[in-house]
Write a structure and sequence with these properties.
This protein is mostly helical. It is built from 18 helices and six strands. The radius of gyration is 59 Å and the shape is rod-shaped. Keywords: Membrane, Transmembrane, Transmembrane helix.
Length: about 475
């Protein structure tokens, strides 16, 4: 192989590697794009939305794009000079390869031969893997995208369906719906009609009465109707009944129930409970009104004594045992005060005796403080004074003072504001003037007494305080 042929062979090998690199990158990118398309189609159900098979379209488009990419790659790398110039730029050969390819077909000259010889040596030393690598950053990116989208396809793949079991005679036979006897349907219709009629009378609801009448007509027509039609009309009337009850449905009607069997069971249970309650009430009434062996009502001794006192029955008309019991009850009643209840009897309510209400300012201070202690249990019943002189009490707590309750609104648990009208008197209390420590009056000095707060007067704070807690004793 001469020098020029060796150079051409080396450049052609580099071109093949470049083409293979371009085709590999294109194939990886196109495969990643097809995987992404399939993943989106499976996630968003594009096949049913657009009405076209997505998988064949994606594969066909990928193959077409790859062929177009391959044609472009072959066209771009067709000339050896292009590959030579790329190699020169990468390895710094200063246009030796491209120049050698151009002058290789010329006449033999010393300069040309020297160039070809030098270029041939350099071309033989080139590392083809370094000059035209098959994998690079673009290849790694395409491979990563392909792996990612392929993993997404595996994750979203539908679960395999189990193989169908061989058909049997029982499986081939259609399942029969749970059919209820016709007499049960008729019984439920009549039962609901009776319940609605009773509730319509109790609640005075004309809508329920109309539904009840429609159910009675359905009960008459049901024997001649198809069961499905009768059941459909019954369920429609049951919905109308629920609308008639509104927000207060009865015990036997549960909102939202659509099963005819459940409605019938609840109505039957409700009727059974009503029957049991009525029987219990009749039993209690029968126990309260029992007759003896002769058919006469059995009465208590208190009732017999009351009858004898009213003169409706003579003791001689009773047997000795009953007469003795009635006599004992009558004697016990005579020993009790008027209106007091006897054993087993009841007394008439009597109004309470009116009590004299006195203003708090008219009660002695000591009595109010001592109320509820010992023998003094009412306001005004105490005897301890704050001062030894009664004149002090008369001057300080005159009965003519007026207590005014403020009209301002108060919150629950707060005290009522008490205002005592100020009073001007021509007399006042003098200082202690002697060893007897008696209080004397001086008519020459005018003293004005101002209103005080409820806390300064325990009697007012006790009897005119609105407190959430009961007052303590001695306040």
């Amino acid at each position: 192989m001469n020098t020029s042929a060796g150079i051409r062979h080396a450049v052609a090998a580099l071109r093949r590697r470049q083409r293979l690199r371009i085709l590999l990158d294109g194939a990886l990118f196109i495969a990643a794009l097809v995987s992404l398309t399939l993943l989106l189609a499976r996630t968003f159900d594009l096949e049913s939305r657009i009405g076209l098979p997505v998988v064949p379209l994606a594969l066909g488009a990928g193959i077409a794009v790859f062929l177009i990419h391959a044609a472009i790659a072959l066209a771009v790398t067709r000339a050896l000079g292009t590959t030579a110039r790329r190699t020169e730029q990468k390895f710094g050969l200063q246009e030796r390869l491209s120049t050698a390819l151009e002058v290789s077909e010329g006449a033999s000259e010393p300069v040309r031969e020297a160039l070809l010889s030098d270029t041939s040596v350099r071309a033989a030393r080139l590392d083809r893997r370094a000059a035209a690598p098959l994998a690079g950053p673009s290849t790694a990116l395409a491979a990563g995208l392909l792996v990612l989208f392929s993993a997404g396809l595996l994750v979203t793949a539908p679960a395999p369906r189990p193989a169908p079991l061989p058909a049997t005679a029982e499986a081939e036979a259609p399942a029969e719906p749970d059919a209820e006897p016709t007499d049960t349907l008729l019984e439920d219709i009549a039962r609901m009609a009776d319940l609605l009629a009773r509730d319509a009378e109790t609640r005075e609801e004309s809508y329920l009465e109309a539904v009840s009448n429609a159910l009675r007509e359905l009960a008459e027509e049901a024997p001649g109707l198809d069961r499905e039609e009768a059941l459909e009309r019954f369920m429609a009337l049951a919905e109308h009944a629920a609308l008639g009850y509104g927000d207060t449905p009865p015990e036997w009607m549960e909102p939202g129930q659509s099963n005819m069997g459940e409605i019938g069971q609840r109505m039957a249970a409700f009727e059974a409970a009503e029957t049991a309650r009525a029987a219990a009430a009749e039993a209690r009434q029968a126990q309260a009104m029992m007759d003896d062996e002769y058919g006469a009502p059995i009465l208590s001794s208190d009732a017999l004594a009351d009858i004898i006192r009213q003169g409706l029955l003579e003791p001689a008309q009773l047997d000795p045992a009953m007469a003795d019991a009635a006599g004992q009850a009558q004697g016990m009643a005579e020993t009790l005060p008027d209106g007091a209840p006897m054993s087993g009897g009841s007394s008439q309510p009597e109004p309470m005796e009116e009590q004299l209400m006195r203003p708090g300012s008219a009660m002695p201070m000591g009595a109010a403080m001592e109320s509820g202690r010992g023998d003094s249990r009412i306001a005004g019943g105490g005897s301890q004074d704050l001062a030894e002189s009664s004149e002090y009490m008369r001057a300080e707590f005159a009965e003519s003072e007026e207590i005014v309750i403020s009209a301002a609104e108060t919150e629950p648990g707060s005290r009522i504001r008490i205002q005592i009208a100020p009073e001007t008197s021509a007399s006042a209390v003098a200082d202690d003037a002697g060893p007897s420590r008696d209080w004397r009056r001086q008519a020459d000095t005018a003293v004005t007494r101002h209103a005080v707060t409820p806390d300064a007067r325990p009697v007012i704070a006790r009897y005119f305080a609105r407190s959430a807690t009961p007052p303590t004793t001695g306040r």
